Amino acid sequence: MTLFWIASIILIVMSIVLIALPIINKKSNHDEALRDELNKALYKDRLSELKEETEEGLVENQQDLIADLKQSLLDDIPNEAAKSEETSIHPLAVLIPSVVLVVALSYGMYAKFGAADAVKQWQDVSGNLPALSKKLMSPQSGELSTDEMEDLTLALRTRLYYEPNDSTGWLLLGRIALANRDVTTAIGSMKKAYELDNTNQDIQLGYAQALMLSQDDVDQDKARSLLGNLIQHDYVDIRVFSLLAFDAYQRKDFDAAVRYWSIMQQMIGPQDERYEMLSRSIENAQKQMGATSIKGTSVPVTISLADQVNTTDDAVVIVSVHTADGSPMPVAAARYPLGTFPRTVVLDDTNSMMQGRKLSQLEEYIVRVRLDSDGNVATKDGDWFGESETAKMGEPVEVIVDKQY
């Protein structure tokens, strides 16, 4: 507001100067003098004409005409009172009311039509951006009301106008648009955030989520590509599987939808209130593809490290699923970067190692985890490992790495 008042004062001062200059620099009116000079010139010209006309015999009563001409000249000359009449109004008597009128009219019109209350609210909302952003990013703080969402949108747009390279701001704006089902704004905001920081997993996920709502096949293909990249990371957000399941169900790939929903169940566990909802979704998908029973077809493995385990930065995690009898030949295996622990990975039929034998065909199995320190799977000296108890297909497995070769 300080800038507004400074600017308004400068404009009003300029207006007052423009009004004051003509009043202060008022010039005298010489119209009467100029008219006298003109009348004298016309009188002399007419006398010359009368003289010529008299000499030519065209005029008989020259003196009478001269008398009439003199009388006309006297009638056209203003009397002394009119000539000497000059305004006695002082310039300040005009200037001061003009200044008061300009100031009163300017601020009065602004108070009436300038939306001062809206401007103040806009500035208050912009100042409240950190608190609103924190509440949006913290689910435990409760959901934002409709008015708070509108305020946050206004504050974000204001900030992004001045800081267009703020990827976090574009991400937040995209999330608000997603909540309001404003697909166009969501895609545009998430795309801008992705262009500014395409390595941020939250931005990749948000961009994929926005593209999933598009009716354009190209956008949806881009979303699947982003989700496919996210699923390769050490830690996979459960929302990635949710989007993949939603997409698979929309494409009537019910088998894939069941697989992703099953993975989600294994990640959250039966104690989570979303577990039953996912069960209903799985059951619905199974009915759509004609199945009568639900059976887990993937193996979720939670890996933890014992306190004495030492790792190197170039170590990798090798997870293998074996038959319940402990056969050294794995039915399925996968290799992951070291990452952080504890962590959960999921193996399915795509990780099968044997021709003609799928992981989902096992009824019981054990899981072995090895931290390979040199990147060579053929060598084991000094590697840390752990093994699970026997588990049934679909059951989550926990493995503690606590032994060393």
Automatic annotation (TrEMBL):
The keyword Repeat applies. Residues 300-402 form the Cytochrome c-type biogenesis protein H Ig-like domain. GO terms for cellular component: cell envelope; plasma membrane. Pfam families: Ig_CycH, TPR_CcmH_CycH. Keywords: Cytochrome c-type biogenesis, Membrane, Repeat, TPR repeat, Transmembrane, Transmembrane helix. Residues 119-275 form the Cytochrome c-type biogenesis protein H TPR domain. The chain crosses the membrane at residues 6-25, 92-110. It is found in: Cell envelope. NCBIfam families: cytochro_ccmI. This is C-type cytochrome biogenesis protein CcmI. It comes from Vibrio sinensis.
